[in-house]
Amino acid sequence: MSTNAQYRQRDDSPMGDHIVYLHDVSWEDYERLLAMRGDRSAPRISYLEGYVEIMSPSQTHEGIKSLIGRLVETPCLEADIPFNTYGSWTLAAQDRSRDAEPDECWIFGQAHADRPHLAIDVVWTSERIDKLDIYRKLGVPEVWYWRRAASRPTA
Is the pTM value of this prediction over 0.85? Predict the structure, then answer.
């Protein structure tokens, strides 16, 4: 089965990502959540002005992220464009109002940067906090979203 057919014929039953939402969370409480998780990349935790999203990605979620990553890296390798991959790098705002962890992110070229040039986010569930707003306010110049398509009726 080709990769494209695998995602077209996927089972969208509720066995995907596991997501917990919290509200009225202080920045200090958010930092405690990060400390409890430690240096692991899962669960991924995002914060936006008192709202927290805690997401444990499913196998399918991670597979889609990796496939998109290959679509980014292969042309760079072919064209000798230098890049560094930083996975789900925790990106925090200095004013302590927002934070996000992309599924994958990159810096292109030789220069050091305090923000990725490109972040990828796989959106499997529609009821999430506005991560695009977080990335915009964090100064990430480009974000690619993969969204789960709505089921299409079959003929």
Answer: no
